[in-house]
């Protein structure tokens, strides 16, 4: 995904946590995170883009590359509300064998940053004011925004498919570019200062309501409004690593729904990529699936990270 898409997803995740129905205890944790985020929201565009702009570990830590193989594959579960989960279970490759490129490690990267956020929050609480080793709020914010970048990338089919769709006509960049263009078209952005203009409630300001209503972004909003937010990782998943592994598996299956077996970067072009024989997902469906599920995933991981920290803080206060 591209710069403003990543930032928009982070804002939508926080908006999701602020307005969704949660049990009383989790509502308390979510409210604390929402307040903290809004106090640091001007850094989200730079922070969420830091993995691409500075760290540049795209070849291995932004991806988890799968290829079909002989035999039976073990696919993890996801929360039932995830569109990518329902679609993946209908794929002809579901429960079929696969191999994973051992040099790709997106789930582990997410697990590591999730721990880093919690660890730095603990250090901040433990160290005395002015301690040279204590993390600043800005440092923690950047880690949190970086985490949202890697989580979002797991939802992009090209990040989980060993076929090389960044080559040839670069369908990978083309589709991500459509999402980016739509977000920039609909929202009011201060690009010189790398920030959105905000509504009074602190969320990105839409500059053209008519364009929004005719956009797939409106479909994303509708999907989120009509689905229940689930905190669960999905049955059998115990942590961020397990959850992100499951997401990458179903993102791989989603890629084969978009570009069926037998197609690769040599045969799929900008002219023919929509309407391929055997393709069973449209661009609009793809967009709603990827973007709405990414919003919920960022919200889910962030809330669990923040809840874990606040529970530790409560015990140690």
Please name the defining characteristics of this protein.
mainly alpha; P1 Nuclease; two-stranded antiparallel ribbon; 4 strands; 5% strand; globular
In short:
The protein has helices at residues 3-19, 24-38, 44-55, 83-89, 106-126, 137-153, 171-186, 209-213, 216-226, 240-258, 283-316, and strands spanning 66-72, 96-100, 189-190, 195-196. The chain is built from 11 helices and 4 strands, in the order αααβαβαααββαααα.
Description of the structure:
This protein is globular. The protein has 317 residues and is mainly alpha-helical. The model has no long low-confidence stretch (mean pLDDT 95). Helix 3 packs across helix 6. The strands form 2 sheets. It has a two-stranded antiparallel sheet with strand order 1-2. Strands 3-4 form a two-stranded antiparallel sheet. The protein has one domain: P1 Nuclease (Orthogonal Bundle). A hairpin with a 4-residue loop joins strand 3 and strand 4.
Which percent range describes the beta-strand content?
5-15%
The CATH class, by name, is: Mainly Alpha
Unreliable stretches (pLDDT < 50, length at least 5) are: none
Largest sheet: 2 strands, antiparallel
Mean pLDDT: 95
**How many domains is the backbone divided into?**
1
Oligomer: single chain
- Overall geometric form: globular
- CATH fold-level assignment: P1 Nuclease
- Helix-strand pattern: HHHEHEHHHEEHHHH
**Total E-strand runs:** 4
Widest beta sheet: strand line-up: 1-2
CATH architecture: Orthogonal Bundle
CATH superfamily name? P1 Nuclease
Total count of helical runs of at least 4 residues = 11
Radius of gyration: 19 Å
Which secondary-structure class do the elements indicate? mainly alpha
Terminal residue distance? 40 Å
């Amino acid at each position: 995904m591209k710069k403003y898409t990543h930032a928009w997803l982070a804002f939508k995740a926080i908006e999701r946590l602020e307005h969704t129905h949660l049990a009383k205890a989790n509502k308390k944790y979510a409210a604390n995170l929402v307040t903290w985020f809004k106090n640091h929201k001007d850094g989200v565009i730079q922070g969420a883009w830091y993995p691409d702009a500075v760290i540049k570990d795209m070849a291995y830590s932004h991806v988890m590359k799968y290829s079909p193989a002989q035999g039976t594959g073990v696919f993890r579960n996801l929360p039932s509300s995830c569109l990518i989960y329902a679609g993946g279970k209908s794929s002809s490759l579901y429960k079929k064998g696969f191999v994973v490129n051992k040099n790709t490690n997106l789930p582990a990267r997410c697990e590591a940053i999730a721990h880093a956020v919690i660890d730095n929050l603990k250090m901040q609480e433990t160290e005395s004011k002015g301690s040279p080793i204590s993390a600043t709020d800005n440092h923690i914010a950047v880690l949190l925004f970086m985490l949202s970048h890697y989580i979002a990338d797991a939802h992009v089919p090209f990040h989980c498919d060993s076929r090389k769709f960044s080559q040839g006509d670069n369908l990978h960049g083309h589709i991500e570019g459509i999402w980016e263009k739509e977000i920039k078209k609909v929202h009011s952005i201060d690009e010189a200062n790398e920030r959105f203009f905000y509504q009074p409630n602190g969320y990105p300001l839409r500059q053209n309501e008519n364009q929004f209503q005719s956009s797939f972004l409106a479909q994303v909003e509708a999907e989120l409004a009509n689905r229940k937010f689930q905190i669960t990782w999905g049955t059998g998943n115990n942590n961020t690593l397990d959850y992100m592994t499951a997401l990458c598996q179903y993102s791989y299956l989603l890629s084969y729904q978009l570009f069926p077996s037998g197609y690769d970067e040599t045969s799929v072009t900008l002219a023919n990529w929509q309407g391929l024989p055997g393709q069973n997902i449209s661009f609009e469906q793809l967009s709603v699936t990827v973007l709405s599920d990414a919003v919920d995933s960022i919200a889910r991981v962030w809330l669990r990270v923040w809840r874990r920290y606040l529970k530790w803080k409560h015990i140690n206060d």
